[in-house]
Design goal:
two-stranded antiparallel sheet; 1 helix; 21% helix
Length: 72
């Protein structure tokens, strides 16, 4: 569901299949917003990029300190 208050920050006119996105948060609702700028069916990325993606979500959703144990 798209939040009508969020402008499509990741939308680009020069898109040739690559996916651009922004990660932000809405201070009034506390929701983390990941804006891909277009409808997507699936998402794939290299392992390092997936780690960076996950860390950015944690940065937006956590307080200053996070203790994290990754379950198997």
């Amino acid at each position: 569901m798209t939040d009508p208050r969020v402008k499509p920050l990741a939308r680009r006119t020069d898109d040739e299949g690559e996916l651009t996105f922004t990660i932000t948060n809405d201070p009034s609702s506390g929701k983390i917003i990941i804006d891909f700028g277009k409808k997507i069916h699936w998402l794939a990325m290299p392992r390092k990029m997936a780690q960076q993606f996950a860390l950015e979500i944690l940065r937006r959703s956590a307080d200053r300190h996070v203790k994290l144990e990754i379950p198997k």
